[in-house]
Each structure stands twice: as C-alpha cells, then as structure tokens.
Amino acid sequence: MYSQGLQDAKGGPEPEGLLKAFQKRIDNEEKIEPRDWMPEAYRKTLIRQMSQHAHSEIVGQLPEGNWITRAPTLKRKMILLAKVQDEAGHGLYIYSATETLGITREEMTRQLLSGEAKYSSIFNYPTPSWADMGAIGWLVDGAAIMNQVPLCRASYGPYARSMIRICKEESFHQRQGYDIMTTLARGSNAQKKMAQDALNRFWWPALMMFGPSDKDSKHSVQSMQWKIKRFSNDDLRQKFVDVTVPQAEHLGLTIPDEDLKWNEERGHYDFGEIDWDEFINVIKGNGPCNKERLRARQKAHDEGEWVRKAAEVYQQNQRDAA
Ligand code: BYC
C-alpha cells in the first residue's frame, strides 16, 4: 500500500481516507493549494526541494557575480548584471512559495548557513575565465530549464506557478550563454581554447545537476507519485545530453567524453559514467568552492542585518499608524 509508513506531524499514521482522497486529487491533475490538507511527508519533501532550489538561485549568483566587474564590453556587463538580478528574483519567488508551507524565511536561511540544507552542486565550482559565463548560461541554465519546465506542472500550486516566469527567464539566460560561446568559438584560437576549456570543466558537473542515478535517488519514486517530479533524474539527464550534443557540434567544440556516441537502436546518445564520488564529495560540502560560497552568504547575511531591522521598524510604524 502506497501510504504505508507515512507519518503525520506527531509521528502517528496518516489517516488512510485522507491519503486516498489526496492521491486522487493528484491523479486528477488538481493543484494542491496551501490551505488544503496534505500529508506531512508531502509538505516536508516540498520544503526540502523548494528551499534547496531557492538557495541554489541565491548561491548561484556568486560564480557569475565574480565576472560583473570584468565583463569584456559594456553590453556584456549589462546583460550579465540583469541575469544575476533575475536569479535573485527567482530565489525570492521560490522562498515566498516555500513560506506558504509553514516555514519562515529566517529558518530557511538558518538551514542554508548551518549547512543543513543543500544547494545545487554546480555552484561549488570556480569560474576562472570569462568563457565560464558562456558555459554556465549554455549548460547550467540549459540543464536547469530541462529540469524546471516539468516543474511548471508540479502538483503544488505555488511552486508550479513560480516556475512559469522563472522558466521564461531561464530560456533567455540559456541563449545569452550560447551567444557568448558562439562569439568565442568563432573568435581567435585563444578564444576557441577558452570556450573549449570552459566546456571541459562544466560538462560533467552540469550532468551531475540532475541528481543521483535513478537507482540511488531516494526521493524520486514518492515525488513522482505525488507529481512533484514528472521525470526521473536519469530521463532528464538523457534529454539534456540529446539536445546539447548537436549544439556543441554547431559550435565546433568537443564534449569531453570518449564514450559519447549516438545509439541508433535507442534513439539517444550513450554517454560515459559520471564520477559519483566527486558528486557525493561536493554535496557533502567538500567541493572546490563550498566553503567560499557559504562564507559569502554568511557575510551578506551579517551585513544585511541593519536592513532587516530597518524594515521591521518601518513595518511596526505602519502598523502603529493604522
Ligand atoms: N546538488 O533523491 P534525490 C539554477 C541531493 S539553480 C545538490 O534524487 P530529489 C540556476 C538531494 O537534495 C538549479 N544536492 O533528490 C541558478 C537529496 O538530498 P537530501 C537548482 C543534490 O530532490 C543560478 C539527495 O541528493 N534546481 O537553475 O528527488 C544560475 C538525493 O537525491 C543534487 C533545483 O533545485 C545536486 N545537483 O531530486 C544558473 C530544481 N541532486 O535533500 C542556474 C529543483 C540531488 O535528501 N530540484 N541532490 O539531503 C529538483 O528537481 C530535485 O531536488 C533534484 C534532486 C532533481 C535536484
């Protein structure tokens, strides 16, 4: 029975009738809204995934923020600045959507800064070259779109709705990344080399963004039954490889995988084994930039304290005046 082992907030069994009615609503493609009854495990899994998603948007500003002051032209600088601002917006929409599940923004921030909550592994890699801005837009936003378009149909209404605008903006981000890569790939030998080097460094980490392989993904089965996730991690990863390989060919760049080969029978590209030890190491906090990223977030939090205090005083004054 699917409901076996699902516990309510007090650790008792969830009522069978309510669980059945809930699953029926999901199967009928009805959206679940904040005031509706939901199993405690559904609420918790959404808080986990959505808060980690929001944290990823915010931490994800850091690798690109690194290049705003050094963008090669004014136009590129304006575009990058706008992209990084969009990511702050995405974080805010998803934090707000997560708050509808009964967790505060303060608690989510505490979980991020204490290392209790994860954020996407991809943002723990350094961005030493301008070409990395191209690779992030092309590959990282490309992978993000592949994962997030199905989330526009997630069963939880506020999450699904926040994803619609985010996906529109992510497509623009992906195209700006590909545009940077196109310019570099058509440029001097040194520029082509930069583009290839960025692809070499970001390819495998981009594939890791989709999460562990299906056999090791502990949340997928339940999340797919609840239609939070619509596709498995491996299925989305395969789709990403299939659309990205021709894009690399068009750029004249080589994907750093000797096992990459079109498989006529499957109608998909076969690709090499991901280094899962590296992935686990990064999500445990030991990637190249994990500590630096959390230090930057802690600093921003500390330095923003006066803003939070001023906002509180302002709100109190408004209430007093009302
Ligand atoms: N990195 O059972 P699984 C962006 C964790 S931001 C770190 O398959 P699930 C952008 C997973 O949390 C993109 N951890 O989990 C921003 C779980 O650990 P816990 C962010 C990962 O949730 C700026 C454990 O591994 N996108 O677009 O069913 C600039 C087992 O995994 C990762 C989202 O967050 C990872 N890559 O599936 C540019 C999308 N993968 O929590 C771009 C929303 C797995 O039990 N999230 N883990 O401790 C999802 O779709 C799903 O959460 C995932 C994982 C597919 C990522």
Automatic annotation (TrEMBL):
GO molecular function terms noted in the UniProt entry: phenylacetyl-CoA 1,2-epoxidase activity
GO cellular component assignments: cytosol
GO BP annotations, alphabetical order: phenylacetate catabolic process
One Pfam family from the record: PaaA_PaaC
Residue runs in coiled coils: none
Listed InterPro entries: Aromatic_CoA_ox/epox, Ferritin-like, Ferritin-like_SF, PaaA, PaaA_PaaC
UniProt superkingdom: Bacteria
Protein name, entry field: Phenylacetic acid degradation protein
Taxonomic source organism: Marinicella pacifica
